[in-house]
Design brief:
The longest helix has 16 residues, at 276-291. By secondary structure, this protein is of the alpha/beta class. Helix 3 (89-97) runs parallel beside helix 5. Helix content is 39%, strand content 12%. The protein has a single domain (10-291), classed as TIM Barrel. The strands form two sheets. The protein has a six-stranded parallel β-sheet with strand order 4-5-6-7-8-9. The chain has a three-stranded parallel β-sheet with strand order 1-2-3.
Length: 295
């Protein structure tokens, strides 16, 4: 896919970082691989991406891509699903040594995720293969010891914690303990999705812990449609752009490129009255702050 600088509002992407994209190689079909994405991003002046896979660590993929396309910063991450041993401190430590910058709590292996999709179903998600779901709390309501150890590793590396597909009750305990452990960078993963269904009151509570609210464009797409642009705009207007980030969560074969997705997202918010400076805050400045780099 060729990107042209004459496309409307493509200039908004200058210096942008999408903290949530899926690329190949992966064990499911992806629209493009990490090198193709980096080549596209270089053409429009984007600064970089965090590469996410539900199944494998992405830090090695990011490292190799950075050698091939040094103008774009590809950043690795790790999702704590069953594929890597779930809440596995050793896997976290290894990925952080490989310069991964974001550790996601369980997504497709999360108890909340599996129970939600067992209830509503989805043609693109197979849940019958999940033999063991992950719940991060003890019966007493406290975090599991492995989870606490993982928070310490994230804090020591000044990495980012993302809440994944956990339930709101898990997220509340997680974020509170993360702050106690010294984690400075926290992302609340798509709080408006029906699977998460986080109230505005709880979102405000998360912001009081200095967490960022992540709004994903995938959530508004026809095949998912679990939130709307209007709902995202309402949260941004009530909570403020300085507490939000915009990501695409793109890379699926049935969606456009993440780059076009971020342009589409930004342009749509402009149409709904979000000003240009606020969009730049959410796709450039806030991601850079989380990553500890200059915007």
């Amino acid at each position: 896919m060729t990107m042209y600088l004459s496309e409307p509002n493509i200039e908004l992407l200058e210096g942008a970082i999408d903290l949530h994209v899926h690329v190949g190689p992966d064990i499911v079909d992806r629209l493009l691989d990490s090198v193709q994405l980096a080549e596209q991003a270089r053409n429009v002046g984007m600064k970089g991406f965090i590469l996410k896979s539900h199944f494998i660590p992405t830090a090695p993929i990011a490292a190799l891509t950075n050698r091939l396309i040094p103008e774009v910063k590809m950043i690795g991450s790790l999702v704590l699903n069953n594929n890597v041993g779930g809440l596995n401190p050793s896997a976290v430590e290894t990925s952080l040594k490989f310069n991964a910058k974001l550790i996601w709590m369980p997504t497709m292996s999360a108890k909340n995720h599996v129970e939600y999709y067992q209830k509503v179903g989805h043609p693109l998600l197979s849940i019958e293969k999940i033999e063991k779901t992950i719940y991060i709390l003890k019966k007493s309501g406290e975090l599991l010891e492995d989870c606490i150890e993982i928070l310490g590793l994230i804090a020591d590396s000044n990495a980012i914690l993302a809440t994944g597909h956990l339930s709101v009750s898990e997220i509340k305990v997680l974020v509170k303990e993360a702050k106690n452990q010294g984690v400075k960078n926290i992302i609340i993963t798509h709080p408006l999705d029906k699977m998460t269904n986080m109230s505005l009151e709880t979102q405000i509570e998360m912001v009081e812990y200095d967490a960022f609210l992540e709004h994903t464009w995938l959530s508004t797409m026809p095949i998912w449609r679990v939130t709307s642009p209007q709902a995202i705009v309402e949260v941004i207007n009530k909570i403020g752009a300085k507490h939000c980030i915009l990501t695409t969560d793109f890379g699926q074969a049935h969606h456009p490129s993440p780059i076009e997705g971020l342009r589409f997202f930004s342009r749509t918010l402009l149409e709904f009255g979000i000003d240009k400076n606020s969009i730049i805050q959410m796709i450039c400045k806030n991601p850079c702050k989380l990553l500890g780099i200059e915007s």
